[in-house]
Design a protein that fits this description.
Layout (H helix, E strand, L loop, with lengths): L2 H11 L6 H7 L4 H30 L3 E2 L2 E2 L3 H48 L4 H23 L8 H32 L1 H14 L4 H15 L11 H27 L3 H9 L4 H39 L4 H11 L4 H29 L9
Antiparallel strand pairs: 1-2
Helix pairs in contact: 2-3, 4-5, 4-13, 6-7, 6-9, 6-11, 6-12, 8-9, 8-11, 9-11, 11-12, 11-13, 12-13
């Protein structure tokens, strides 16, 4: 295989087939055709985005809100840069803080060791007791220095990672529930008929309706002491709400994929007298994988959209809470910072979708996947 086709195959596997005409043009393959494709798939979207930014910049100054005029693209970019600068500044302060705490701990340990030596050389029992108390005091101070935590709220980057962690937790829960139920629905028509009304009833329910119920139940069941808990209640509430809203596409697509398996494959399983578990593992799941991943792709997108509303209400320290805090803050930077969050949410959602496309292509047996 030539280098050109290896590059094209890599771009296609990575969900970046839009750049294929550039590779073909560089090798001199049908320049007119490739230039037309480049204009259509690259230049036109770039020009459209630039036009959008231009209209936004011209219209921004004429729209007055209670927080001031709508920020221009440049002001939003500057606000985003400010958030990054604040993140780096806090990380630098955090590094200095922990370095100072380690130095303090070393100093306190040395002083404790010195008092231990004095206690051994003490002339009287009272003097020895005083030295041992001083040793114990410095050892406690050293322990406190080592266990001290940097007192600062999460930065914008921390909130992004919190949201990603939450959405993947919810996505994992949804997948673990939806895929087995979807397989059962596809295999057993009676089970599908029984479960279908529940799917149709709960599928359209908004996260704003699920979240209060989830928060009440989590509050009742998750009674672990917050100082020893692995997860905060707000994180669990947000993740479960994401799961409840995003499991339906995976469940439906899995059931559809299993139900559409070639009957010849199932007949072969009967002839070979395969057990139910072996049939599911060797025939059903591999055959339905393209449908399952199509459902997972939709579910992840739904989960990412649902997450922001869930974090707003549950006060999980992610992007949703950031947007809510900025709205409540009401400063001159409010709109710019919220728009930074909007673009961040959109870009991350796009990247997550690209990742799922790559995974879907990997199991689709060279079938085209809609981007």
């Amino acid at each position: 295989m030539s280098a050109k086709y290896r590059i094209i195959k890599t771009l296609d596997a990575a969900g970046l087939s839009v750049f294929e005409p550039v590779v073909r043009l560089c090798t001199g393959e049908e320049p007119r055709v490739q230039l037309r494709k480049i204009m259509l798939f690259i230049v036109c979207p770039v020009l459209a985005f630039m036009l959008f930014l231009g209209i936004w910049a011209m219209a921004a100054s004429s729209i007055q809100t209670k927080y001031g005029t709508v920020p221009t693209p440049g002001e939003v970019w500057t606000a985003g840069g400010g958030l990054m600068d604040a993140h780096h500044k806090q990380r630098a302060e955090e590094t200095v803080f922990y370095k100072e705490q380690k130095e303090k701990a070393v100093t306190f340990r040395a002083q404790a060791a010195a008092f231990a030596e004095r206690a051994q050389a003490a002339a009287s029992a009272d003097q020895k007791e005083r030295m041992l108390k001083q040793q114990e005091l410095y050892e406690k101070q050293a322990d406190r220095a080592l266990t001290a935590r940097f007192a600062a709220g999460p930065t914008y980057i921390d909130q992004i990672f919190t949201s990603l962690k939450t959405v993947f937790a919810g996505f994992l829960i949804a997948s673990l529930v939806a895929i087995p139920i979807g397989i059962l629905c596809g295999i057993n028509k009676v089970f599908m008929a029984a479960i279908n009304p529940l799917v149709q009833i709960f599928k359209p329910v908004s996260p704003l309706a699920w979240l209060p119920i989830v928060m009440i139940i989590v509050g009742a069941l998750y009674t672990t002491d917050p100082t020893h808990a692995w997860f905060e209640k707000s994180f669990i509430s947000s993740a479960v709400t994401v799961a409840l809203c995003s499991l339906w596409p995976t469940l439906i697509n899995t059931a559809l994929g299993v139900a559409s398996i070639d009957k010849d494959h199932l007949n072969v399983a009967r002839v070979l007298k395969l057990s139910t578990w072996t049939k599911i593992r060797k025939i059903v799941v591999p055959s339905a994988l393209p449908y399952i991943f199509a459902g997972l792709r939709i579910s992840l997108g739904v989960g990412w959209m649902v997450l922001i509303a869930a974090e707003m209400l549950a006060q999980n320290p992610g992007l949703g809470k950031f947007v809510w805090d900025m709205f409540q803050n009401g400063s001159s930077q409010t709109l710019a910072l919220i728009m930074v969050a909007v673009f961040t949410i959109g870009v991350i959602g796009f990247l997550l979708d690209r990742i799922m496309i790559v995974l879907q292509k990997a199991v689709s047996f060279d079938e085209p996947v809609s981007a």
